[in-house]
Amino acid sequence: MAHYCAKLVFSMILTALATILVLLSVAIVGCVLMYRRLKASILSFVSQPDEKTPSPLATFIDTCAFVFSQRLVLQLKSTVMGMNSVDSKIEQREAVATALEGNPSLAAALQFIPGARRLMKNPQLLTLLTGALAKVGKGAGGDHTNMVSPGWSVRQFPL
Whole-model pTM? Predict the structure, then answer.
């Protein structure tokens, strides 16, 4: 019986070794096949199919470069437009300051006009308002300088 058990153990060891060898060889063959497929995929991605058609890698790089350059141009454009906007706002403020310094009545009138902020943002409207104030100051309907007698006072009118 000992002899039978020894044969059985030896047979089991040989079976285990054969199984390990078969699995190892299958794994090696699988790795070789995967390597070949991966190599073929990489080569097909990198190489040109024909003379007129670019490789998929070249197409991918071209698309990435186009998107990058497009975004760069948009960023530069928005930066330049922002700087132009700041410059135009500074010019508008200088024009408003010049108009207000030259006409103190305009500065006083802007305190009472509800849309004064809008007027200050548009210097052309300030010139129109200056012209309108000049007409009001001159009097548009005749001579109103002698409307009140020299002896007039507020106490003459009872409340």
Answer: 0.43
- Cα–Cα distance measured from residue 55 to residue 108, given in angstroms and rounded to the nearest whole number: 73
DSSP for 54-78, written as a single string: PPHHHHHHHHHHHHHHHHHHHHHHH
* 8-state DSSP, 132: H
List, for residues 82-106, the tens digit of each pLDDT value: 888 888 888 877 877 777 777 777 7
- Cα–Cα distance measured from residue 141 to residue 144, given in angstroms and rounded to the nearest whole number: 8
Cα-based angle 81, 85, 90 (whole degrees, multiple of 5): 150
Q: What is the helix (H) or strand (E) element at residue 29, kind and residue range?
A: helix 2-46
**What are the tokens at 53?**
């058609």
By CB neighbour count within 10 A (0-12 exposed, 13-18 middle, 19+ buried), where does 57 fall?
middle
Mention every residue, 6+ apart, whose C-beta is less than 8 A from residue 60: none
Element of type H or E holding 146? none
